[in-house]
């Protein structure tokens, strides 16, 4: 349990990673928190074990920035649920952040495997 | 962030709660599908979600101006916590208020009264120049002629000014009609007095150099601001008008500025006149201006820039040698002393009491601080469980620390405000205790306030230490509240024992000082002054002011005595030049056959010139020889009566007093004066120290025109005043009494005021210290009893009698106190000797005081422990057992 009182996911994942994952998930279709959480978990093949609760502050933050918007709707099994969808701004952000992320991964890769590159 | 969200965060929060709830429902449904029971499924869902409160808080905080909002929340919570525990809050606030308030007030008053430079520009460079007739003399006044030489020959000083007290009947009727004459206290000053001090006129002008040239030529007066405002209703056109001083017409040339409070902090002179006017205003005529041995003037000077005090002193010493060679008769063995002006005012005996008071008030502050610290500690421990529970629930450490700090800050703020209010009230009360004339306006001293408030804050932070420790070690605390805490508890147990012991020791010292001073005050009131102050009426007159020649003046006084004696209700009457505690003078005296250990023959000796019947009227016993007779006049051989102190010091040592009769004394004039009587010692100035040597001379041989009639009455002396006034009017309708008072009044106002102040102050501090210590002890004992409630319950359930349990707890309380008590008593024995000069003969190791203070402390400790013990015993044993 969190002694520091901070949501673990935020402290354990690279800042902005969760945001990116949420944006990516919403790019396909609007979804509510429960769906998003399970989608991230499933697609990452359970590598990213998130505490689902920590998703909500992130959703709130993204909504605050205007990248996603929310509305109350009805879920697949007829429950009231809050849905999120990507805004135009959010779509732009997703593109930007995806390319930045790829650059970052590439850079890290070069740092981690410099010898391999030289041999080639 | 959308600013609107800040105001709508409650609604937002509700919405988030709903959203999270919907997640839980969906997840529960999913878990049920995997085969879990509904209850387990819901629990699993919640686990998957995580700490819902934290999530909502995280979102909530995103919507806030985080700092302001959490501050507001902390404040509300802190206020709620403090209100939940009102006795703790009140005790801490009162303790802080008392500590801060008393300290600030006392420091402000004592500092404002004593350790303040004069209210003149650049006061720190003002020096006092004293000359003394011999190295053994404590009087430091200088003569007018010596001053002229200092001014002419010294190079160390920019300028030197002299001044001398002068009381006179000031009648402003000529300037402001309808104002009656009153006795005013003023200064006779050199023409450069104001310019040397750097004080410009508030209105009009100050003195011109030529007004210091010719005796009696320039009847001009500068009025004091207070007199001008109070007696003359701040008449703006006063300059140029005439007032009467002792029946002489003086022209008002100016008014001193409001900020100038004179050359002594407690005297705001009513008027200033040039030294040259001594010829009409003083009974000594021009004697002051022509006699080098008449040392009547205090001297203040300003050093030239770049000249050090040491250089000035060296030059003055050389100058004094020159004067000694030039005027051996008057200046033999005289010395000059230069020191900073404030040093002269604070060096003397009179400054001991204020220093003691400052030390005492420091002790009170320490006690208060220790008290607050131990109360805070006790509270932190009683909250340890709460704290660990909060941590276990996921509260952040930072939040908890902030919460503790907020509570402390609120306590500090409350205590500080209460302290400031209290300081203001105390300053008012204290100012009322000081002599009414010329009391400076006291203000809260900011340095003192800052210091006291700072100490209070340190105490609070100190007391916060266990709270912070408990936050750090919450894990252990959660695991097992009792064992984990015990380590800290032991540490702080020692700290608290130390604090309590220190408090008790300091309180003991305070109380003993207070006890001694109170006894000293009682003793001082009943102290044998050497004269009987009750039933004596004093009426001062000076017929020479109405132009009567010296012989006629002398006759007037003698006839007045004869008339006064005839008034019914009068036991006896006489007159004298000086009244104890009011005024006095000292002359150089030589005694045939005596030289000082320093090889000097002159001794500076207090004198009084008295009429026949003086000793009987004052109630001063004559030990041997005879009183003066009316025949001891200017035609008869010179005679003197000396007091026992003079006889023993200079004439007879330990031999019987009769041996003093027949000894020959001489004044500077050298004519032999035979001792014809020895009077018992009596106080002439300060109550307390051993009486000074005094020589009494017959008024008929040595008296001036200004005399005070002393009338001993059967009943209330004040009621006879009108009758005596009418006798004066019958004798000479021109003569107006300068002063009418009773001897008792004079003694109380001038002799005892300082002692009363010291006694009242120390007694208040003692009481305050005791109160604080008892409160502290009570707090700690009740905290300890609280921790032992379970144990007490067990003991009672097992059949321990109430008396036994009570004794056990009280014994614990006493054990806490006893070490402090012993240390305090021992420390007091070590330090009270320093106060012995102020105790009027009460022993600094007064057994009665020590024993009664010890008893008071023990009784207080018993009360402080018994109350929480009794409360604990009322608790039902079953409740007590479940208490943990």
Q: What's a quick, concise take on this entry?
A:
The complex is a heterodimer of chains A (120) and B (884). By secondary structure, chain A is of the alpha+beta class.
Report on the architecture of this protein:
With about 120 residues, chain A is of the alpha+beta class. Chain A has a single domain, classed as Winged helix-like DNA-binding domain superfamily/Winged helix DNA-binding domain (Arc Repressor Mutant, subunit A, Orthogonal Bundle). Chain A has helices spanning about 10, 15-30, 35-45, 55-65, 90-110, 115-120; strands spanning about 30, 70-75, 80-85. A 3-stranded antiparallel sheet of chain A has the order 1-3-2. In chain A, helix 2 packs across helix 5. The N and C termini of chain A lie far apart (about 45 Å). In chain A, about 30% of the residues are buried. Chain B is of the alpha+beta class. Chain B has 5 domains: about 5-60; about 65-120 and about 350-480, no CATH class; about 135-330, no CATH class; about 480-530 and about 750-884, no CATH class; about 545-735, no CATH class. Chain B contains 30 helices and 22 strands. Chain B has a 6-stranded mixed barrel. In chain B, strands 14-15-20-17-19-18 form a 6-stranded mixed beta barrel. A 4-stranded antiparallel sheet of chain B has the order 13-21-12-22. In chain B, strand 18 (about 665) and strand 19 form a beta hairpin. In chain B, helix 6 packs antiparallel against helix 15. Chain B is elongated and about 135 Å long. The two termini of chain B are about 45 Å apart. The chains are: A alpha+beta (about 120), B alpha+beta (about 900). The interface of A and B includes residues 5 and 77 of A.
